[in-house]
Amino acid sequence: MIFRADTDQYESSLAVVLESSMFKALEMQEYAGNRLLWSLSEEERARLRPNMKHVTLALGQVVYECGERIDYVYFPTTCVVSLLYTMRDGSTAEMALAGNDGVVGIALFLGGGNIPHRAVAQIGGLALKMPARVLQEEFTRGGPLQHILLLYTQALITQISQTAVCNRLHPLEQRLCRWLLLCHDRLNGSEIPMTQEIIANMLGGRRESVTVAAGRLQDAGLIHYSRGHIKVLDREGLETMVCECYKIVDDELSRLVGAPQRSELNKRVPCREADGEAL
Ligand SMILES: [Zn+2]
After folding, report:
1. 148 CA distance to ligand 1 centroid (A)?
2. 57 vs 205, which has greater pLDDT?
3. How far is the CA of 243 from the centre of ligand 1 (A)?
4. CA atoms of 107 and 75, how far apart (whole Å)
5. Against a cut of 0.85, is the pTM above it?
6. Would you say residue 148 has pLDDT above 90?
């Protein structure tokens, strides 16, 4: 019986250790999914953890409406959120996108309170959410979180500015390459679930023009489009074709918040014959 009790105790202790290490591994995985949180020290992350919750943002889910009070900020890990402006006539254009490189809700810590644009999950997935009050308190502390949030804001300003310049000066085909690369950088795979109508809304172009531009990229063997999914077949090919705007945004982000740990899947995928699905 004593032996049995010892065994039980041993197994119980082992279970606690395993559970604890599994939880820690899971926690590390969660944080590793977001470049800003991953850049913090382990102590800093452990302190923030009780106030963060993993949530799923579904494709098309509105994270913030224009002018709405911000109750939570979101650190995307696998989802990608678009910051969009909708004009009075209903036409829409994307100003920037935020994925595992950033945070959604910067107006909260900048002091403005709300934002004059919408934030919509354009690629569904996971994010870590933190209550507004907690983030404001953390930001006021002036520690490493404040530092990385300010650096990210500078990188986001670069992305917004470069998007404006790109939309004004560069052809749709190059803008589509830029957008695909920015999305691809923020995903753990080569598949981008996306319809051409949504892409047209993102790029501020007409659907027909997006169909032509996407068709050219598919004919060149760079992407394959099928049933609302875009598969990147040749990332290096897209990098060759894209305008200078992509690299400016990517370089500035890496300089300010650190280089990404890109998944093997995000590296060059060998070109293959498209399956013949019509665009
Ligand atoms: Zn451009």
Report:
1. 27
2. 57
3. 5
4. 14
5. no
6. yes
* C-alpha 137 to ligand 1 mean position (Å): 38
Distance separating alpha carbons of residues 166 and 161, to the nearest angstrom: 9
CA of 274 to the centre of ligand 1 (A): 27
**96 CA from centroid of ligand 1 (Å):** 13
Q: How far is the CA of 239 from the centre of ligand 1 (A)?
A: 12
pLDDT tens digit sequence for 231-274: 999 999 999 999 999 999 999 999 999 877 654 434 434 333 33
> How far apart are the CA of 247 and the centre of ligand 1, in A?
9
Segment 239-243 long-range contacts (CB within 8 Å, at least 24 positions apart): 239/181, 241/173, 241/174, 241/177, 241/217, 242/174, 242/177, 242/178, 242/181, 243/166, 243/170, 243/174, 243/175, 243/177, 243/178
| Domain boundaries defined on the chain | 31-278
**Alpha carbon of 35 to ligand 1 centroid (Å):** 25
Who contacts 208 (Cβ-Cβ below 8 Å, separation ≥6)? none
Please give the span between the terminal C-alpha atoms of the chain, in angstroms, as a whole number: 71
In the prediction, which pLDDT does 189 show?
A: 80
The side-by-side arrangement of strands in the sheet containing 223-226 is 191-193, 229-232, 223-226
The fourth-level CATH superfamily of domain 31-278 is: Jelly Rolls (2.60.120.10)
